[in-house]
What does this fold into?
Amino acid sequence: MGASDFESQLRGLRLTTAEITYRMPDFRDIMQIYIWQDYDLAPRFPKLIKFLDFWSHNLDGPLATIRVAQAGLVAPAQLRYVGTEWRLH
It folds into this structure.
């Protein structure tokens, strides 16, 4: 963890992990999982929303489900699921 990561946590950002399940572009019955991780601000998650907007507008694999977990301020690696679920389409 670099100094900028520590400063981000002190500014209120938390390490956020999103498990993104999407359908393969050519084989819609096959699902894949992509893991996204960055420092983001709950509960609005502006970086995650920006990434999901980019995905839905520029990539061919349609999103199926997104699960979000978040780590606390300068603590051991403990993740908890945020009680929010977004569904597209």
Summary: The chain has a mean pLDDT of 84. Strands lie at 14-23, 31-40, 63-71, 79-81. Residues 3-81 form one domain.
